[in-house]
């Protein structure tokens, strides 16, 4: 296994070496949990993966072209904000952040916003968190694949059952969409996937059709949901926790939002270009609170080289995003939370710093970056606009980490909210 921990070698591998590092290692457990490697996230670098990625990118682009993201977020915020305002004293904001993010991705995929007690929301979040927590340390079955045939561990069986429950939720939603599909009204990402299949049917393209089975399409949906929800909720949980412990930075974010957006309306996607300090603060949250510290493992497609070393075909390659974000050669006062490092001399968001790579890069770079960036910004800016956030007295100012999954999680914490800008 090779671990790349500096931006020079990461850029060489992911960007300059074309597809050499674009494969994924094969794990039997992934193969089983993705109904036979029919997903995007863990799939090998094959024409089928390329087709699904292309269709998913196009479908997300279609969705993002209008202002549906903003509409769905505003609807969700109108549900969440009054509930948050009613919280008395210190509380854990996790459930509200979960709902805001769930509603965005539920909106993207299935065109709907739900309430806090929606059964699918509650079930989905519970399953997704538990699965992230449990899968982090891997499966003994991957070392001894024969076990899949004779006896699987309790851990694998539990995760497999939870995975099947997730798949059944998505399957039901996909079937509802198929029944109500209308060519003249493409409502969301799911409709765009169904449309892609109908187009292949019209062209009688059997080869493409064989790659667009129901299983493939629901696995793509599952990817968008699972890859999108945990990463975004964790980033926002870090953001709220950082702001609670950094009152000066919080005030600067709020001054900017008050000046640009005011008090009479919610922030919009268009405001983002004028909210440079707020965006820079989010960048700094994503640097110090790296949500996916070791990315998703890559694998080499051929014999290749990186950093002057030979790397044989089929070598697992890990991108250490945490190291890139904490490299003292790249970041001045590396441990200091300082949004201004992302701003130019005019206070505008400067060119992206090379060693800031939360979404990775190259052919396997995060497929949802175009959704995640406006989504995180809108949610963060709206929370900051509405609430002053403080820590309960006696809280350790250091942020503690928890969890052992793909995603790094801040340890559960509580905050106190005070409404600002009450209309
Ligand atoms: C804070 C938010 C997010 C972060 C930090 C993040 C980060 C990442 C990272 C590090 C990877 C691995 C890239 C690689 O292998 O080099 C990845 C892959 C992926 N992400 Fe995200 N992500 C976020 C949000 C999202 C969202 C909202 C979606 C869906 C709308 C999404 C969908 C995906 C998919 C499908 C892949 C697999 C791409 C492939 O293998 O071709 N992510 N993400």
List descriptors.
about 425 residues, mainly alpha, Cytochrome p450, three-stranded mixed β-sheet, 15 helices, 9 strands, globular, binds protoporphyrin IX containing FE, microsome, oxidoreductase, iron
Strands, total number: 9
Discrete helix count: 15
CATH superfamily: Cytochrome P450
Q: SS-based structural class?
A: mainly alpha
Low-confidence stretches: none
Order of strands across the main sheet: 1-5-2
CATH architecture: Orthogonal Bundle
Give the topology string: H per helix, E per strand: EHHHHHHHHHHHHHEEEEHHEEEE
Distance between the termini: 56 Å
* Strand residues, percent: 5-15%
What value does the Rg take, in angstroms? Answer: 22 Å
Helix amount: 40-55%
CATH fold-level label: Cytochrome p450
> How would the global form be characterised?
globular
- When the domains are counted, the total is 1
Mean pLDDT, nearest integer? 93
Describe this entry's structure for a reader.
The chain is mainly alpha-helical and 423 residues long. The protein has one domain: Cytochrome p450 (Orthogonal Bundle), CATH 1.10.630. It has helices spanning 7-16, 28-33, 47-65, 68-86, 94-110, 119-135, 147-150, 154-180, 189-202, 206-210, 214-245, 247-260, 276-288, 321-325, 369-386; strands at 2-4, 298-299, 304-306, 309-311, 316-319, 387-390, 401-402, 409-410, 416-419. The strands form four sheets. It has a three-stranded mixed beta sheet. Strands 3-4 form a two-stranded antiparallel sheet. Helix 4 (68-86) runs parallel beside helix 15. The chain is globular. The structure holds protoporphyrin IX containing FE. Residues 40-41, 53, 223-224, 227-228, 231-232, 235, 291-292, 295-296, 298, 319, 358-360, 364-368, 371-372 line the site of protoporphyrin IX containing FE (HEM). Belongs to the cytochrome P450 family. Its main location: endoplasmic reticulum. It is a peripheral membrane protein. Heme binds at residue 366. InterPro entries: Cyt_P450, Cyt_P450_CS, Cyt_P450_E_grp-I, Cyt_P450_sf.
